Amino acid sequence: MTSSPAVIDHPLLQHKISLLRDKETPSVIFRLLVREIAQLMLFEATRDLELTARDIETPLTKMTAPVLATPGPVLVSIMRAGNVMLDAALEIIPTAGVCHIGIYRDHDTLEAVEYYFNGPPDIAERALLLVDPMLATANSSIAAITQLKARGVTNMSLICILAAPEGLAALSAAHPDVPVFVGAVDTHLNEKGYIVPGLGDAGDRSYAT
Ligand code: PRP
Ligand code: URA
Hints:
Layout: E1 6-7, H1 11-21, H2 27-45, E2 51-57, E3 62-68, E4 74-79, H3 82-92, E5 97-105, E6 112-118, E7 128-131, E8 134-135, H4 139-150, E9 156-163, H5 165-174, E10 180-185, E11 188-189, E12 195-196, H6 202-207
Parallel strand pairs: 1-10, 4-5, 4-7, 7-9, 8-9, 9-10
Antiparallel strand pairs: 2-3, 5-6, 11-12
Helix pairs in contact: 1-2, 2-3
The structure holds 1-O-pyrophosphono-5-O-phosphono-alpha-D-ribofuranose (PRP) and uracil.
């Protein structure tokens, strides 16, 4: 099985991603834009969330109304930069579970270095939404998904703001069963593994490091 990403190319998203790319955008605005973009992308990426029926009473009458099934999805942040998207997503789905996965890429080898995992005990039974602004080589997201599968997770999708074609191909080869939602697919990776035109280092730009 092979997969291709769902590119969410809504005009509002394209506009906000352009502001995000601008090197003059300061961290405080960068984080704000990442939050807004995450919420817009989440709207599309959660289209298949499971609903259940609940009996309620409006001021006028009784009705059976659709509500999110419980337990709800688990939002998974690939740290650090994923945390900005996670916080924004939690505002939209406040009942979601949360999982943090600490991964950074080694600057020289571009290999993923895993340093932290903390998620709910029933994670294997739940639908997961992974968030990370950047998919470059895909080493980080492949490592995160591999960790989750090792814990029994079968239902997950990944939301990234920017992706490189090389990373999408690598991810599709490693985990063809995981749907990917992206805001834009850029042209290529440069010799240091950065997405071009890209936006630079998402973690550094989020936290001014
Ligand atoms: C960034 C980004 C992704 C990763 C993408 O994290 O948030 O996790 O790079 O690159 P890849 O697809 O080539 O693995 P980074 O390694 O800068 O870690 P940080 O957020 O902790 O700074
Ligand atoms: N990680 C980032 O934050 N930016 C890139 O361009 C590549 C990896």
